[in-house]
Amino acid sequence: MRPYEVMLIFDASLEEETIRAAIDRFAEFIRSRGGNPGRADRWGKRRFAYELRHRWEGYYVLMEFTAEVELEQELHRMLSLADEVVRHKVVRIPEAALRARAAPATAES
């Protein structure tokens, strides 16, 4: 299984409950396909640098998960079809970045 991050940009006009339900739905999708959803870091509303689909603001969420390549492709397709998602980007986390994240934690203990 490979580690991934997905940056989700939701429509800023959506309610918190709708965004929370969508995040839960995506996590359940990952879990049901054999992946392991990780933390979901909610960044909140941010202004875009340029207009995107006639919007100037979006609600950002960074979500981590581990999965096989096939699941990542299915998730990408699902997010492309989701109406509440304005834009998304799925990125595989490199091994060097994982080691760098773990190094400060081991240095503290």
Question: What tags apply to this protein structure?
Answer:
109 residues, globular, 40% helix, alpha+beta, four-stranded antiparallel sheet, 3 helices, single chain, Alpha-Beta Plaits, 4 strands
Radius of gyration, in Å, reads 15 Å
Proportion of residues in helical segments: 40-55%
Distance between the amino and carboxyl termini: 27 Å
The average pLDDT score comes to 89
How many beta-strand runs? 4
Assigned CATH class:
Alpha Beta
Order of helices and strands: EHEEHEH
The proportion of residues in beta strands is 35-45%
Domains counted in the coordinates: how many? 1
Major sheet attributes: 4 strands, antiparallel
Low-confidence stretches: none
| Sheet with the most strands: spatial strand order | 2-3-1-4
Tally of alpha and pi helices: 3
**Corresponding CATH superfamily:** Ribosomal protein S6/Translation elongation factor EF1B
Going by helix content, strand content and strand pairing, the class is alpha+beta
CATH topology: Alpha-Beta Plaits
Q: Which descriptor suits the 3D outline?
A: globular
CATH architecture group name: 2-Layer Sandwich
